[in-house]
Amino acid sequence: MWTASQWNDYRILDTSNGEKLEKWGDYTLIRPDPQVIWNTDKKLTAWKRPNGHYHRSSKGGGEWEFFDLPEQWQIHYRDLTFNLKPFSFKHTGLFPEQAVNWDWFSSLIQKAGRPVKVLNLFAYTGGATLSAAAAGAQVTHVDASKGMVGWAKENAVSSGLGEAPIRWLVDDCTKFVQREIRRGNHYDAIIMDPPSYGRGPKGEIWKMEDCIYDLLKLTRQLLSDKPLFFLLNSYTTGLAPAVLTYLLSDVLSGLGGHVDSQEIGLPVESTGLVLPCGASGRWEA
């Protein structure tokens, strides 16, 4: 498992009964996690005094309960700054487990010794975009949500990357890839963080298991003559890391290089164990 263990501003303090107790900078949150199927004693007093608690509803969805939590606050990872705020579906605007991937591809970009163009699809609030830009890459950031792209821009400014070579685009990722193929544009590296399920602006249904293979085949056409890496993330229940290895090995056959896929996770302080948080597939030249 690849573990995001280099955080200073984020920690999982404990886990129990379908929930995780987290420290986000100065604030403690309790959020549900489907991986936490154990029910151990909640010995930490922080369980009783959170700043925010997201309660899952038995009918689906849920709602936040707040105890002295600001509308927005910041945390830092290395030289990056992220603006956080609680919003629907328990999220805060950041997936901290992805830091293990940020470190991996940032090292590849820095060691490349040449200009690197990165395409980040389903780019959310820009964690991967900012990590790549801070490492020296020119990045194209694509997400279908105008609000998420705006949030990512705020994170860029907060991180001192407001003038970095980042192209911000609100667009459907598949349609953007199709247009880039027609334009003849190419990228040295591609990052994909697709949702398990979603709907397009015209009601188009996206299901990871039904759509990802065709999108990967399309996106492969955007790779340059000297590709550096390809990262595919999955939070889809039931898709093992080996599935990502198979997908990338098939789609990127003929390029050489190496494919590896693992679960990604975050350390839990109370036990010294690692909480699994999805999977990532990596190809590198």
Q: Give the strand tally.
A: 17
- Number of helices, counting only DSSP H or I runs of 4 residues or more: 6
Question: Tell me about the biggest sheet?
Answer: 8 strands, mixed
Overall pLDDT score: 96
Shape, principal axes of CA atoms: globular
Estimated structural class: alpha/beta
Radius of gyration (Å): 19 Å
Number of domains: 2
Question: Class of the largest domain in CATH?
Answer: Alpha Beta
Strand order of the largest sheet: 1-16-17-15-12-9-10-11
Strand content: 25-35%
Assembly state (oligomeric): single chain
Distance between the termini: 21 Å
Which bin fits the share of residues in helices?
10-25%
What does this structure look like?
- With 285 residues, this protein is an alpha/beta fold.
- It folds into two domains: 83 residues, Golgi alpha-mannosidase II (Immunoglobulin-like, Sandwich), CATH 2.60.40.1180; 189 residues, Rossmann fold (3-Layer(aba) Sandwich), CATH 3.40.50.150.
- The protein contains six helices and 17 strands.
- The protein has an eight-stranded mixed beta sheet, with helices on both faces. A five-stranded mixed beta sheet has the order 2-3-4-5-6, with no helix packed on it. Strands 7-8 form a two-stranded antiparallel sheet.
- A hairpin with a 5-residue loop joins strand 13 and strand 14.
- The protein is globular, with a radius of gyration of 19 Å.
Question: Summed up, what is this model?
Answer:
This protein is an alpha/beta fold.
